[in-house]
What we know:
Strand order of the largest sheet: 2-1-3-4-5
Order of helices and strands: EHHEHEHEEH
Bound molecules: ligand CA2
Amino acid sequence: MPPLSILALHGPNLNMLGHREPGIYGSLSLSEINRLLEEEASKLQASIISMQSNHEGVLVDTIHEALEKHQGILINAGAYTHTSVALRDAIAAVNLPTVEVHLSNIYRREEFRHHSYISPVAIGQISGFGVQSYLLGLQALVHHLREKS
Ligand code: CA2
């Protein structure tokens, strides 16, 4: 099997996970989520590198750099999901298969969260299953990449 490397990208405020608002986002910290992603990736015989930033431009740069290093992107763009044409354009520019994930069900929340700029450039979206959204998203992304090759 050819080696598969995935970039997991976490957007603004997700570094606060486990410390605030456990009712909405669960009690796991971002490092615990990253550890679970690594375990899942290893079961899928893939590798995963995780990165979090609160800065839109840093996320854009990281997406550009992914082109040289990774075969797919798993992204929770946080609030930038609903605002960032720049992130959407970056994903479209690199054209790497991307899965969008959300811990909460964005469609059960405020109306401003119902629109995603990322969805039209993603191969799919998983929303509302807490940390399972990330793990399911990773499984879907790896299966998609393996089917392609
Ligand atoms: O449900 C998700 O994963 C979101 O992407 C989380 C974003 C929110 O803006 C999206 O609409 C849905 C917010 C992340 C904020 O994370 C926090 C974690 C702990 C405490 C406070 C914020």
